[in-house]
Design brief:
64% of the residues lie in helices and 0% in strands. The chain has 157 residues and is mainly α. The protein has two domains: 10-44; 62-156, no CATH class.
Length: 157
């Protein structure tokens, strides 16, 4: 039988000291470690031979599709909203200070609380389960449409 060392936090060691005569520490650790390893084998696919690569690839594809759907909704709403935004807001979004496509958190780029409220309301209207909304993907699509609108009208103003 193999031997390993287990390090305990001081507080746990003090509690263990009170019960060392009634608790088989080795057996308890073996059972707990065995349960944890069994769970890991199931979760990672080691036990049934199914590699996690397939699961990860499937989830990545679903994530991209989910983000694409929300971005497309944002683009459509942005194209509509751009026609009603004021000049200053359009100019701000159209400026180079909004690196929309390369920014990790496009939601933070929305220029005013009023605009955030409109976008937030539109996103919620799209999905009754608000917690499932990909706000960043939606905001990225919205901002890209508004920027495209600005680029189209800027020289005509």
């Amino acid at each position: 039988m193999a031997t390993i060392s287990v390090y305990l936090q001081d507080e746990l060691a003090k509690k263990l000291e009170k019960h060392k005569d009634t608790l088989n520490v080795s057996e308890t650790c073996q059972e707990a470690l065995g349960r944890e390893l069994e769970t890991l084998d199931i979760v990672t696919g080691v036990k049934d031979g199914k590699g996690m690569e397939q699961v990860i690839a499937r989830l990545q594809k679903q994530k991209r599709s989910y983000e694409d759907q929300w971005e497309e909704m944002g683009r459509k709403d942005g194209a509509t909203d751009a026609k009603t935004l004021n000049y200053a807001t359009l100019k701000e979004i159209g400026s180079d200070q909004f690196p929309v496509s390369s920014y990790d958190n496009p939601w933070e780029l929305l220029p005013e609380q009023e605009v955030r409220d409109v976008v937030d309301h539109e996103a919620r209207d799209r999905d009754s389960a608000y917690y499932q909304i990909d706000r960043d993907a939606y905001a990225r699509g919205w901002l890209l449409s508004v920027r495209a609108f600005w680029e189209h009208v800027e020289s005509q103003i």
